[in-house]
Amino acid sequence: MTTLNRPGAPDGHVCGIDTAMEVIGGKWKVLILWALHEHPHRRFGELRRLLPGVTEKVLASHLREMEADGVVRRVSYDEVPPRVEYSLTEDGTRLNDALRPLAAWGRERPVG
């Protein structure tokens, strides 16, 4: 399921931030982007271990959405047992790069 445009402008978006938020909205999607950036070409179980607290259902759903949005690549290998790996697309890498200043802001922000 790809993200859907909202009304408000001819293309359904008011500004670029709302477009980006449709793709990365929620707690887990940005963490999936980070995990695939830090650990490229990961299997589902490996990703789940990198993201403590995420459920299988949520991870599977988010990976499908992110693949449909063009930021995650899913490669299925014709092997026994079957093997599937996930990685960032070029668009996913660009999105992750765009989030880098936000991560820096979060690290530098005082707690409390």
Characterise this structure.
One of its GO terms (molecular function) is DNA binding. It is a single chain. With 112 residues, the protein is mainly alpha-helical. It has a single domain, classed as Arc Repressor Mutant, subunit A (Orthogonal Bundle). Helix content is 54%, strand content 11%. It is built from 5 helices and 2 strands. The chain has helices at 16-24, 27-38, 44-50, 56-68, 90-108; strands at residues 72-77, 83-88. The protein has a two-stranded antiparallel ribbon. It is globular. The chain starts with 15 loop residues before the first helix and ends with a helix.
Characteristic key phrases:
112 residues, mainly alpha, Arc Repressor Mutant, subunit A, two-stranded antiparallel ribbon, WH-like_DNA-bd_sf
Overview in brief:
With 112 residues, this protein is mainly alpha-helical. Helix content is 54%, strand content 11%.
**What share of residues are in beta strands?**
5-15%
CATH architecture: Orthogonal Bundle
Give the class-level CATH name: Mainly Alpha
What composes the largest sheet? 2 strands, antiparallel
- Radius of gyration, rounded? 15 Å
Provide the residue-averaged pLDDT. Answer: 88
Q: How many domains, as an integer? A: 1
Order of helices and strands: HHHHEEH
Fraction of residues in helices?
40-55%
Q: Examine the coordinates and then state which fold CATH places here, giving the name of the CATH topology.
A: Arc Repressor Mutant, subunit A
Q: What would you call the structural class?
A: mainly alpha
Kindly report how far apart the N and C termini lie.
Answer: 38 Å
Report the principal-axis shape: globular
Please give the count of helices: 5
Number of strands: 2
Q: What strand order characterises the main sheet?
A: 1-2
Low-pLDDT sequence parts = none
> What is the CATH H-level superfamily?
Winged helix-like DNA-binding domain superfamily/Winged helix DNA-binding domain
